[in-house]
Amino acid sequence: MSTSGVNPYLRTKVLTASPAELRLMLFDGAIKFLEQGRQGIEERNYEQMFNGISKCQNILVELMNGLVPKHAPELCEKLSALYTFMYTQLIKACSERDVEVLEEVLKLLRYERETWAMLMSRLTDEGTEAEVETNDGSVSVSG
Length: 143
Fold this sequence. Notes:
Blueprint: H1 8-16, H2 19-42, H3 46-65, H4 73-96, H5 99-126, E1 131-133, E2 138-140
Antiparallel strand pairs: 1-2
C-alpha cells in the first residue's frame, strides 16, 4: 500500500496512538465520513454520498472486529448488535437517499464517541490503563 498521499501528521498520530485512542479515532472518522455522505445526499452528489457512507460502513466493520467477547460477552453482544443495526441503516439510507436515516446513525455514533471519550477520561483520572489484547490490537477496558 502506497503512503505517498497520506498526511504525515495523521500517520504519526495513528502509529503512536494507544488502542483506546485508535478506537476514538475510528469514531471520529465514521462521523466525518457520514457527514460527507449526508452532504452528498443534500447536494445530489451521489458519488460523494456513496463514498462517505461506504467508508463509514468499513469503520463499523472495524469496530465490530475489535470487540473481544471473552472480556465482556454481554457488552460485546450489545455493541455488535448496535453496529450491525447502524450498518443496515446505512444500506437503507444509501438506497433510499434518506437524510433522516443518516441523522439517526450520526446521533448514535456521536453518542458512542462521547461515551468512549468519557470512559477514557475516567480511566485517566483514576490512573487505570485500558487492558490491551496484544495479539490482535483489540481493546478491553478494565477498571
